[in-house]
Amino acid sequence: MSIFSTFIRVSPSVNTALEVLKDTQTKLTNAERQMSSGLRVQTVKDNATYWRISTLTHTDIGAISSVQNALGLAASTVSTASTGVGSAIDVVTEIRTKLVGAYESSVDKTKLNDEISQLKQQLRSIGESATFNGVNWIVLQDGADPAAPHEVPGSLIRGSNGTIRIGMLNYAGVTSTTGPISSLDARYLIDDQSGGTGGYGVLTSTAFAVEAGAAKNYVLLNSRNGDTSGQVEIALEANTTQGAVVDMVNTVTAMLSQLKTIGSAFGSLESRINLQTEFAKDLSDSLTSGVGKLVDADMEQQSSKVLALQTQQQLGLQSLSIANASYKTLTQLFQNF
Q1: HEC-encoded secondary structure of the chain
Q2: pTM summary value
Q3: Which residues of 246-269 are buried (b: 16+ CB within 10 A; e: fewer)?
Q4: In this predicted structure, what is the pLDDT of residue 294?
Q5: Domain extents in the chain
Q6: What pLDDT is stored for residue 307 in this prediction?
Q7: Mean pLDDT, each 10-residue run in order, the chain (337 residues)
Q8: pLDDT at residue 1, rounded to an integer
Q9: I need a labelling partner for 127 at 20 to 30 A (CA). Which of 37, 45, 169, 294 fits?
Q10: The pLDDT value given to residue 145
Q11: Please, which residues have CB within 8 angstroms of residue 160's CB and are 6 or more apart in sequence?
């Protein structure tokens, strides 16, 4: 039973004391609730407009957090691919150096070829190892569309009508051409797709030899699952002619140029992801701060308010006690008449 329920038929002074005490108790309960939750707008009845804004904003903050997680995953995937391309450039450069060395007629070309064979195996290893979370952006496998760009979530965009869409960052590689596959279509390191000819992989495409005017369809690596008929994997033999070496060097030089273009594309995407990640973090902080200004309680102010209301409550209880005692005394006096 509350302290208010015992006073049913009371004097005006007791009624006044009760109303003051009730009002103080209501304010104290509200102040203590704000202290415990840290919010001055906790439910829709506190402030419908601010509550709606804060609810929508918290939803956006949650979505931005998911975008940040996706960006982190994408950053690791792109970084792995970029590292793979960078390592491949170093190895292909070394292969070209070995081929240039074969210009000298007194050089043992078979020994040079042993070194080149090891370097080619390293290229295959680099391509297959550049995988993060099961995703490899530099080796084209069955089931992937070589013409489709790799996309990752990059931003949360809320339209003026309240709809939300996710902005995407994409890696389209280099500019592809229409018609027959050309060197510009090679945006992978290796193309191992079945049914193809390896044309979408720099190391497996014959387009570089064709465009360099080589006498043979030279490639650095054969596609594991593609049609490699008519292709010649770059290698040296004791009787390899100087003209063939020139063709190989020109082909590898063209491959290096394309690899650097791909590396540049990955580098640009890495920079965009890093910038977008920083922006998403700043945006989340800004939204959190903005909604906090609308709904967060001033803890210092609320603490002072709770102390003041507790004091008022004690004074109210004393006033009620005095008013009640006076009422009882008067009642006893009138009972004697």
Answers
A1: CCCCCCCCCCCHHHHHHHHHHHHHHHHHHHHHHHHHHCECCCCCCCCHHHHHHHHHHHHHHHHHHHHHHHHHHHHHHHHHHHHHHHHHHHHHHHHHHHHHHCCCCCCCHHHHHHHHHHHHHHHHHHHHHCCECCECCCEECCCCCCCCCEEEEEEEEECCCCCEEEEEEEECCCCCCCCCCCHHHCCECEECCCCCCCCCECCCCCHHHHHCCCCCEEECCCCCCCCCCCEEECCCCCCCCHHHHHHHHHHHHHHHHHHHHHHHHHHHHHHHHHHHHHHHHHHHHHHHHHHHHHHECCHHHHHHHHHHHHHHHHHHHHHHHHHHHHHHHHHHHHHCC
A2: 0.71
A3: bbbbbbbbbbbebbebbbebbeeb
A4: 63
A5: 12-38+297-335, 49-294
A6: 63
A7: 44 64 65 59 69 75 82 89 95 95 88 95 95 90 83 77 77 63 88 90 95 95 92 94 95 96 90 86 80 61 61 65 59 52
A8: 42
A9: 169
A10: 82
A11: none
Type of residue numbered 151: E
The CATH architecture to which 49-294 belongs is: Up-down Bundle (1.20)
As a whole number of angstroms, the distance between CA 71 and CA 69 comes to 5
- Amino acid, single-letter form, for residue 331: T
